[in-house]
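Annotated sample (chain length 392).
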Amino acid sequence: MQPNAALEAAELIAERPDERLDTARLEPYLRAHLPGAEGPLSVAQFHGGKANLTYLLRFGVGESTREFVLRRPPLGPIPPGAHDMRREHRVLSALSRRYRLAPQSLLLCEDESILGAIFIVEERRVGFVIRDDLPAEFAGRPELNRRIGFALVDALADLHSVDPRQIGLGDLGRAEGFLTRQLSGWTRRWEASLGGPEEEESRAEMAPVLEWLGRTLPRERAGALLHNDYRLDNCLLDTADPGRIVAVLDWDMCTQGDPLADLGYMLNYWVEPGDAPEWRAIASMPTWRDGFPSRAEAIARYSERTGSDVGDVLWYQVFAAFKLAVIIQQIYIRFVRGQTQDRRFATYATRVLGLARKAQRLIGDCVVISRAGGNLGLPGLERFPGPPLSRG
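Output written by the structure step:
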């Protein structure tokens, strides 16, 4: 197998036993509704997802093979508004005409008798995903790492330049009051997802973070189209040239809102060599590797490409740490309740606690900058009472 083909193949596994598709019902439905669904069907599963389940569908053999991607929500009860396949289908059907990195959605199935959930079928984009670290094939190339880092920032900036009204998405969410609704909504999700042996500690660690976020809410700015889960492992890279992104994936949370929410979320994963080791263990992209731009360089690149004022970006980083903690807690509680048997999730409570402490440290950084005379544009900023997370 050629190296490039090996990278692509590494994204796939045999279907997990508890997540197999019911092809007895699925196959005839696809043959009736999906153009190109001809010839024998084979199914593999993309292994990287931690929430929505994603599969590769192959119809036919040899040169006549057609490939599609099927996405459906995770098993078990779904929080209201989460894992919204209708939203993803609508977004990609419109956005793929204006933003080249958005795959086209080809089919929305709302008949839950087929798979037990609403699902979509999208075009297949071929590439590979960088997760916790760089593939061995591309290690030791700092100039490539720098290109990957800036490509990630540029792709986000370009998304934020798309006018939702011009592609029929002007009514997708409301930019007005976005941060207030986000903080309120994610706080409700946090409360609803708490549980397990660590519940009391998690609640106590996050309480002062929530108080600070509410007290220092930034001024409202012009809205943009947000991905809402933007990071390196939601991008497909070209196997021949990893400095080029070929697709941005996972659009089920896309909405309109404050563009710095996307930037702050990405920066939450942007770990630098000097950061605390636990930050890397909690959630990171391999941006600590030699050559990747620093967070400051990423912020400056985004500001230059969009013309945006990013002076209050630290608030968005704190909010992103909280939001990610909620997402991870939602995954963890599904494991606690036996709704998934995926053992990767057994230790996720530790990540939740780590993110609460990371948020506390970032708040401490805000206070230090403010006391040194920096203007973060945050109302009510004062010394944070919680203990900072040591950088090791």
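Annotation: The mean pLDDT is 90.
Annotation: The two ends are 43 Å apart (CA to CA).
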